[in-house]
């Protein structure tokens, strides 16, 4: 009986365990699904890695790629890290000169290309800038700027080459930004371009700026050639302050300063080392005696100094610029010597009628010329008075009163039209009167109407 019961229980147990063991292995279709999932996961990982590699390659390529841009400020090529930049800019000025009442000294009415200047600027190794600017205007080819400048900090920059010395206020304005077609009479007494080395910098974001340089030295209004003709050099410096530049307010654009030069100049018969002075129409109204003999030719013979207080103020549409220049030069004619002091000053005011605000760098336009939208750009009225006086001791020993004027004074009015940042049209009328300069007394007045069409980019 017991055996029968054990046999029956064992049979039941075996019959129960049999189906359980048959279900333990996974069905074949589940294994195939798992393998497919693993295969898809591997493919996704491969695609993700390929995308990572592509992104890394693009990022690496971007580090070395250059960018080329063009716009109202010219054309530019720039490396990805900004360490290397090349800019191509320039401007051209097409002028008209039309004279009135020129019976005694007939002058030719003419159109002329006053300035045609391509400009090449750039940066190498992040902090070293360069500028090259020739001029092809008036049928000549002249190099005006060619220098390298290291920007080591806002407070300390070093410039070497040919450039504007830091002296005349209006001379330091770009020719594209000046208020009238021609600069005023005081510009006759300051250097145009010179070769040398200069350190400069800005304090507190431009509240104060300084420049000190050591140059070959040029005559008043001179543009230095590529080499000096004597061992003497000029030291030139400028300090300019804009006390409210950072704090702002109505006096934000008030600036004033002083500049000067000093150096020795020794002239020769072939290079007297002395200037001639010109009217706004670029006609010579003063020059020293010269007859190609040692006894008759006036030569620079010692210390030459310049002194120039200067300033400007701009507020909204109103602008005012003023400067005074004194040029003192030791001269010799034969055995006779003198220390001559010539002076000049100017005051110029402007008012932007519509479309912008006045500034030292031209009108900051709010609207451009666009007839479709009924906007006409910016219009500006300007007025100026300037005067240049020669030392009384200049006459008659060192200059002939029959051909060289003792003084010149000029007044001018003008209307400027800024179509946009690149195009400007100017119309000026200027009258210059003289004391002396003619055999019968005073030189004939110069009355001239200027026009200018300017493109700058």
Protein architecture, described:
This protein has 457 residues and is mostly beta strands. The protein has a domain at 91-112 and 184-192 and 203-456: Porin. Helices cover 14% and strands 51% of the residues. It contains three helices and 25 strands. It has helices at 2-23, 28-64, 169-172; strands at residues 66-71, 74-79, 85-100, 110-124, 128-135, 142-153, 156-163, 194-203, 208-215, 234-241, 253-266, 276-278, 284-287, 298-315, 318-333, 336-354, 356-357, 364-365, 369-370, 375-376, 378-389, 405-418, 423-438, 441-442, 446-456. The strands form four sheets. Strands 3-4-5-6-7-8-9-10-11-14-15-16-21-22-23-25 form a 16-stranded antiparallel barrel. A hairpin with a 6-residue loop joins strand 5 (128-135) and strand 6 (142-153).
Structure described in brief:
The chain is mainly beta and 457 residues long. The chain has a domain at 91-112 and 184-192 and 203-456: Porin (Beta Barrel), CATH 2.40.160.10.
List the defining traits of the structure above.
mainly beta; Porin; 16-stranded antiparallel beta barrel
The ordered H/E elements are: HHEEEEEEEHEEEEEEEEEEEEEEEEEE
Contiguous helical run count:
3
Main β-sheet: number of strands, strand sense, barrel status?
Answer: 16 strands, antiparallel, barrel
* Span of the ends, CA to CA: 120 Å
**What characteristic shape results from the CA principal axes?**
elongated
CATH 2nd-level architecture of the domain at 91-112 and 184-192 and 203-456:
Beta Barrel
In what range is the share of β-strand residues? over 45%
Topology, pairings included?
Blueprint: H1 2-23, H2 28-64, E1 66-71, E2 74-79, E3 85-100, E4 110-124, E5 128-135, E6 142-153, E7 156-163, H3 169-172, E8 194-203, E9 208-215, E10 234-241, E11 253-266, E12 276-278, E13 284-287, E14 298-315, E15 318-333, E16 336-354, E17 356-357, E18 364-365, E19 369-370, E20 375-376, E21 378-389, E22 405-418, E23 423-438, E24 441-442, E25 446-456
């Amino acid at each position: 009986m017991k055996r029968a019961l054990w046999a029956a229980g064992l049979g039941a147990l075996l019959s129960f365990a049999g189906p359980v063991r048959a279900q333990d292995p996974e069905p074949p279709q589940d294994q195939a699904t798992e393998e497919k999932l693993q295969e898809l996961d591997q493919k996704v990982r491969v695609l993700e890695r390929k995308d990572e590699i592509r992104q890394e390659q693009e990022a690496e390529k971007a580090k070395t790629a250059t960018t080329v841009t063009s716009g109202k400020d010219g054309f530019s090529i720039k490396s990805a890290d900004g360490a290397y930049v090349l800019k191509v800019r320039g401007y051209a000025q097409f002028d008209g000169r039309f004279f009135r009442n020129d019976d005694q000294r007939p002058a030719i009415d003419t159109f002329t290309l006053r300035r045609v200047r391509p400009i090449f600027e750039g940066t190498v190794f992040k902090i070293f800038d360069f500028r090259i600017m020739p001029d092809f205007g008036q049928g000549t080819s002249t190099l005006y700027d060619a220098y390298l400048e290291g920007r080591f900090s806002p407070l300390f920059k070093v410039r070497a080459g040919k450039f504007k010395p830091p002296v005349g206020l209006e001379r330091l304005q770009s020719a594209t930004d000046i208020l009238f077609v021609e600069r005023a009479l005081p510009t006759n007494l300051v250097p145009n371009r010179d070769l040398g080395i200069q350190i400069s910098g800005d304090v507190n974001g431009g509240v104060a700026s300084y420049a000190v340089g050591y140059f070959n030295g040029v005559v008043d209004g001179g543009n230095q050639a590529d080499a000096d003709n004597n061992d003497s050099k000029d030291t030139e410096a400028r300090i300019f302050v804009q006390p409210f530049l950072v704090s702002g307010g109505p006096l934000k654009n008030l600036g004033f300063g002083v500049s000067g030069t000093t150096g020795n100049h020794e002239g020769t018969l072939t290079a007297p080392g002395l200037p001639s002075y010109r009217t706004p129409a670029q006609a010579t109204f003063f020059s020293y005696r010269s007859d190609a003999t040692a006894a008759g030719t006036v030569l620079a013979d010692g210390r030459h100094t310049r002194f120039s207080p200067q300033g400007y103020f701009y507020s909204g549409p109103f602008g005012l610029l003023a400067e005074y220049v004194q040029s003192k030069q030791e001269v010799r004619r034969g055995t006779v010597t003198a220390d001559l002091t010539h002076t000049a000053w100017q005051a110029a005011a402007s008012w932007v009628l519509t479309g912008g605000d006045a500034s030292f760098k031209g009108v900051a336009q709010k609207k451009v010329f666009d007839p479709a939208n009924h906007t006409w750009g910016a219009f500006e009225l300007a007025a100026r008075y300037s005067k240049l006086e020669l030392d009384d001791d200049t006459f008659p020993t060192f200059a002939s009163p029959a051909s060289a004027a003792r003084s010149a004074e000029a007044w001018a009015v003008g209307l400027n039209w800024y179509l946009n940042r690149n195009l400007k049209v100017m119309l000026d009328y200027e009258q210059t009167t003289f004391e002396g300069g003619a055999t019968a007394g005073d030189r004939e007045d110069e009355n001239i109407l200027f026009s200018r069409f300017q493109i700058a980019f």
